[in-house]
């Protein structure tokens, strides 16, 4: 690969660099219809028709080489050759949004001035044509003094032309003096723009019409609330038959495999450890897929930055920057990319606040925990004629995370010395009809990620937990269930007094330990612990939700609610804490975050348990 | 006895997987030094297996790419067949 052609993709945010990168390399880096998705450089490889290898670098979007945030600084440094290992780029592929040429030409001119080989990629040409924007590509190439290629990255159109252009070495050192451009940047842009662009119909009527509804102070907020409501209702209502099917399958698998294994210890490992543990988590796959279906559709449509715009006033009052919206939104999938996305926030104070509250957003790992506890303790009944009560509770839990994040940032605003305020500058993309293929690929990826976690860390932790719950084995003539004599049983009983005020029993205490690796492990751990706690086979076959809510042997409603509230706050994710350490460069900040989140979790669970036990007993 | 052996192997494998996920840096350092030791003894294949792979981001746990590998399958030119 050492003789490979080295190219870098540069351009403004949301111009389609990562879509192009994915099409060129065959990878599936995250793309969405809003700015700031890529915050670090990514490397890929592909081959040209001639067989020559190409190493391509995808850089974070930037409006200018005068960087204002950490992600923009990466692009600036690569363009200026300040990063040693990226210093020798053979060409810069300058990706430009054809629908917003005037804005994007600013960066093109800055890169041209660097005097490095460049090829301009005029992307989103389909959208430009739809809006009646005619661009004379040949004239643009003459004016800029560099070659120009037209593409539609999301539809894989024009990629062949780009590959042939690279193959033929059509990336040149700019010849600006030949193009006859004089004056300041904006004057040059005006000259080029007038010369090469012809508007047949300037208005994007679809975007204008939809913005009248979605950006309206009242209608906008109302439509946002309705959309969120539909999502959470669907998560419970649509997933139920699929979840029942998966649960039945694992029940059958446990019985069938158990009948074929004669060794009692091995049988216990397979049935009580692996199937009751890891198998119990797979049940929640349909709910995760339904939630991500809606998120992907909203991402693709271009609606999400509008939601940021609508909520900016509220976020501003709470001490959060408007630019925090995208990182916080990413945190709904996983806090790790959410925290990394804060690199797009230029102000260090705003960035720190966003990092500290990002784990409060409800990540997808919480969904199996919520779904299990809601199914066990909240009746599946209809309220006010149309709403599913379980969906309402799930909506409430998501809202609890958001409201808590606003409250924490509000407190941090008071504690911080720097009280300066920053206005939100956000580019609103045009609305696009979501591409079903992209949504399908996104869902497939989410499904794979979830199953990979189940087959990896959750599977491994289920085996370890089974081992800790099984050894040492009960002595002869033991009167208690065997698990009471095991390492896990002893540890659980040791921890229980600390968690007694919040209503947790020793089984929950055991499950909380492996859940530090990943939140959804708590479901697997509870499955294993209850399967080994002497519960009868019929109860185990009915599923974990029945076991934990059973009359007499199960938990009280207060305990169930308390555990739900615990998972709204508790930082059960070591990967998140490691990311905070990397992004802030300080263990002190990690310690502060861990302490405040566990403190909040304990406090809120305590109040929930105490109030709920007084009301419902 | 055989069942204890299977359980020991599974528990050992699980412990390594969890250790790698929970303490990635320590695990990387440990496996790297183990790989170096194997290299010194001339056990190259084992050293190669033990050498930790470079990962970025969250290690692929959240959906972002965890390595720089090219995922694109190169299409092989198929021989023309008479149908």
From TrEMBL, chain A:
Annotated transmembrane regions: 213-240, 274-298, 369-387, 393-415, 454-473, 485-504, 516-535, 555-578, 590-612
Main location: membrane
Pfam families in alphabetical order: FeoB_C, FeoB_N, Gate
Keywords associated with the record: Cell inner membrane, Cell membrane, GTP-binding, Ion transport, Iron, Iron transport, Membrane, Nucleotide-binding, Transmembrane, Transmembrane helix, Transport
Membrane topology: Multi-pass membrane protein
Keyword Ion transport among UniProt keywords: yes
InterPro entries, per database record: Fe2_transport_prot_B_C (IPR011640), FeoB_GTPase (IPR050860), G_FEOB_dom (IPR030389), Gate_dom (IPR011642), GTP-bd (IPR006073), P-loop_NTPase (IPR027417)
PROSITE patterns xref list: G_FEOB
The keyword Calcium belongs to this UniProt entry's keyword annotation: no
Residue span, FeoB-type G domain: 4-172
GO cellular component: plasma membrane
Locations listed in the record: Cell inner membrane
Molecular functions (GO terms): ferrous iron transmembrane transporter activity; GTP binding
Protein's name according to its UniProt entry: Fe(2+) transporter FeoB
Lineage: Bacteria, Pseudomonadati, Pseudomonadota, Gammaproteobacteria, Moraxellales
């Amino acid at each position: 690969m050492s003789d490979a052609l080295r190219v870098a993709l540069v351009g403004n945010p949301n111009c389609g660099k990562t879509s192009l990168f994915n099409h060129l390399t065959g990878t599936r880096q995250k793309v969405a219809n809003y700015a700031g998705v890529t915050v670090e450089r990514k490397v890929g490889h592909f081959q040209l028709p001639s067989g020559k290898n190409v190493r391509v670098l995808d850089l974070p979007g930037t409006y200018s080489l005068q960087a204002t945030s950490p992600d923009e600084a990466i692009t600036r440094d690569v363009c200026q050759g300040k990063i040693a290992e990226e210093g020798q780029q053979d060409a810069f592929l300058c990706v430009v949004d054809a629908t917003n040429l005037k804005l994007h030409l600013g960066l093109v001119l800055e890169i041209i001035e660097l005097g490095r080989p460049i090829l301009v990629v005029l992307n989103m040409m389909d959208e430009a044509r739809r809006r009646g924007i005619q661009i004379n590509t040949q004239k643009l190439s003459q004016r800029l003094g560099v070659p120009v290629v037209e593409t539609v990255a999301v539809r894989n159109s024009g990629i062949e032309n780009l590959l042939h252009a690279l193959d033929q070495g059509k990336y040149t050192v700019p010849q600006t003096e030949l193009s006859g451009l004089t004056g300041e940047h904006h004057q040059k842009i005006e000259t080029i723009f007038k010369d090469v662009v012809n508007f047949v119909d300037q208005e994007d009527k679809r975007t204008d019409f939809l913005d009248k509804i979605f950006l309206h102070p009242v209608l906008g907020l109302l439509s946002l609330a309705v959309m969120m409501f539909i999502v959470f209702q669907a998560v419970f209502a649509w997933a139920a038959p699929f979840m029942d099917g998966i649960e039945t399958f694992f029940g059958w698998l446990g019985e069938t495999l158990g009948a074929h294994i004669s060794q009692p210890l091995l049988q216990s490992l397979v049935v009580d450890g692996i199937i009751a543990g890891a198998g119990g988590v797979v049940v929640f796959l349909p709910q995760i897929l339904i939630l991500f279906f809606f998120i992907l559709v909203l991402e693709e449509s271009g609606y999400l930055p509008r939601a940021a715009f609508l909520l900016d006033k509220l976020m501003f009052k709470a001490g959060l920057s408007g630019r925090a919206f995208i990182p916080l939104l990413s945190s709904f999938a996983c806090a790790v990319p959410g925290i990394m996305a804060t690199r797009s926030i230029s102000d260090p104070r705003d960035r720190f606040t966003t990092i500290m509250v990002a784990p409060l957003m409800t990540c997808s790992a919480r969904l199996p925990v919520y779904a299990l506890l809601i199914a066990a303790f909240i009746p599946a009944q209809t309220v006010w004629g149309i709403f599913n009560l379980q969906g309402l509770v799930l909506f409430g839990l998501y809202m609890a995370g958001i409201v808590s994040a606003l409250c924490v940032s509000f407190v941090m605003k008071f504690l911080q010395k720097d009280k300066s305020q920053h206005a939100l500058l956000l580019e609103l993309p045009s609305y696009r009809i979501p591409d079903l293929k992209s949504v399908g690929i996104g869902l497939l990826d989410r499904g794979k990620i979830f199953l990979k976690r189940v087959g990896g860390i959750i599977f491994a932790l289920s085996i370890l937990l089974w081992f800790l719950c099984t050894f040492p084995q009960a002595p002869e003539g033991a009167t208690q269930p065997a698990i009471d004599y095991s390492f896990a049983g002893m540890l659980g009983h040791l921890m229980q007094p600390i968690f007694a005020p919040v209503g947790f029993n020793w089984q929950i205490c055991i499950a909380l330990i492996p859940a530090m690796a990943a939140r959804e492990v708590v479901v697997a751990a509870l499955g294993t612990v209850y399967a080994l706690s002497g519960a009868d086979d019929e109860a185990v076959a009915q599923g974990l939700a029945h076991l934990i809510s059973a009359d007499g042997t199960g938990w009280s409603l207060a305990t169930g609610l308390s555990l739900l509230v615990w998972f709204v706050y508790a930082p059960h994710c070591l990967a998140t804490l490691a990311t905070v350490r990397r992004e802030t460069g300080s263990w002190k900040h990690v310690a502060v975050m861990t302490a405040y989140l566990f403190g909040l979790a304990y406090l809120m669970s305590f109040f929930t348990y105490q109030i709920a036990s007084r009301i419902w007993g | 006895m055989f069942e204890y052996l299977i359980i020991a192997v599974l528990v050992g494998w699980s412990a390594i997987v969890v250790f790698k996920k929970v303490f990635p840096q320590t695990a990387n350092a440990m496996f790297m030094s183990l790989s170096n030791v194997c290299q010194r003894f001339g056990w190259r294949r084992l050293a190669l297996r033990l050498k930790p792979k470079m990962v970025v981001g969250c290690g692929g746990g959240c959906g972002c790419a965890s390595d720089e590998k090219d995922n694109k399958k190169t299409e092989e030119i198929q021989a023309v067949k008479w149908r």
